[in-house]
TrEMBL record:
It is a multi-pass membrane protein. InterPro entries: Cation/H_exchanger_TM (IPR006153), Na+/solute_symporter_sf (IPR038770), NAD(P)-bd_dom_sf (IPR036291), RCK_N (IPR003148). GO terms for molecular function: antiporter activity. It comes from Candidatus Accumulibacter affinis. Residues 427-544 form the RCK N-terminal domain. The chain crosses the membrane at residues 6-25, 32-51, 63-84, 91-111, 117-136, 148-168, 188-209, 230-263, 308-332, 338-364, 371-391. This is Kef family K(+) transporter. Pfam families: Na_H_Exchanger (PF00999), TrkA_N (PF02254). The lineage of its organism: Bacteria, Pseudomonadati, Pseudomonadota, Betaproteobacteria, Candidatus Accumulibacter. Keywords: Membrane, Transmembrane, Transmembrane helix, Transport.
Amino acid sequence: MEHNIPLITTVAAGFGMALLLGFIADRIKLPTLVGYLVAGILIGPATPGFVADVHLASQLSEIGVMLLMFGVGLHFSLGDLLAVRRIAVPGAVAQMALATVLGMSMTWWWGWPMGSGLIFGLSLSCASTVVLLKALEARGLLDTMNGRIAVGWLVVEDLACVLVLVLMPPLAGALGGSTADVAGARPLWTTIGLTLLEVTAFIALMLLAGRRLLPWLLWQVARTGSRELFTLSVVAAAISIAYGAARLFSVSFALGAFLAGMVMRESEFSHRAATESLPLRDAFSVLFFVSVGMLFDPTILAEEPFRVLGVVAIIVLGKTLAALALVIALRYPLNTALTVAVSLAQIGEFSFILAGLGLALGLLPAEGMSLVLAGALISIALNPLLFAAIAPTQRWLRGRSELARRLERREDPYAELPLSTERKYLEGQVVLVGYGRVGRRIARALDARGIPYVVAEQNRELVEDLRKNGTVAVSGDATEPAVLIQAHIADAAMLVVATPDPLNVRRMADTARTLNPDIEIVLRTHSEDESLLLRQDGTGTVFFGEEELAKGMTNHVLERFAIQQGAQGPGHG
């Protein structure tokens, strides 16, 4: 039992301190991530009192990385990324490059080698997906157009970081790392080529064999009806594939787990896999952040305050202004630019993974890891304040700057219907707000019956694609009267709102009724309370998801029994 005591002590101390400080952070309106990092600092070697086993904590954190990246892969949707690709891909690449250059420039001024500056700059360039998702969800922005752009941007950053993690070990020698003598045994490009070949082989194996094998495996386990076995199969697949990728293909644990999640997403059980593995993933993710905090030396705040301020300035000001300028340059409104910019004004898990690997390879000094951690702690703590400042900042800019007012009402080529639009789409048509999963199904049904309709959708790129395919669509937020006016709501026969947003639904309905008092309005909602309120207000015909599902199933059951009773004849009771 003696050999198990350090492990138990480390886990107990890590979870206990994380719970206490995470709770305190939540009560003072800070992300719980800040509490987990501070918990690691308090049980780490840099502070007095109890010191947990750093080596064991780092191994536990590797499991956290695997499960964290597995979760990212499990929720990664190529379709979601493609929907915002025209802004997310160039924006993320340019913003990462600018942040990396800023970081390298600062370290050059400090006298660091180029390799150290490169890894340090890259560590400052990638924002935390965990922090972003929690911030957007808390403010109800996750399913908005601005939220989808921010998430797509972060997905591109994550993929770029995965590529960097793959290339760092073979490039370490050339960049001045501790593996220079090993790398020198063969030419650099040979090393890179072999590494990329191994990665390609692993990706091909996962996409070809894994795509068939993993869903089949989940199906076989699900047939047993055992929840424990299903959870075990999900966790075993994530960790085993990550470990096998590292051992057999020289691929990082992070990439192996990420691809395992992506492949498992193909299964019809992917949602259940995500749900079942979530508690374990959250628990080990906490240990990951605690172990990262254990590496932080708080004395750097007193010894190098100006360097810490420089790092925070790059993260909070440099990245924010770069993203703001890029989004505006891509002709998006000021509100979108501010939301995306603030979303990226922090760093998190990938920064820690990159800096940790750089430290292990001898590319980054211990001071660099402490500076990255200090920047993460401060930027994550400031992020909620920046989000809260978006609305007042926007109002202040609009009130004092004509340029800001022009940027807010950017000229969008897809915000107006073409003059060549046929008359049947301008009178007696259906105005369909939202072209998500529900909106697409409604549109297909209308097409099948030859009923003309106009789509109003926030995603400008989706509107562009719809127009290319011959669908009449306008770009913009349908809560703005101008968008419904462009969809010719005044002469429409029906307004169908396919987005479940009760607050905005009322604004759309009010606009439609003002411009067209006789229009029929059809709405959807996910909440029974919302559906009751909307019906009481007489807003329109309301469809509540669970209610419609129950009606459909009930009708099916009653129809089957009616058929059976009819077959038995009137004499059978």
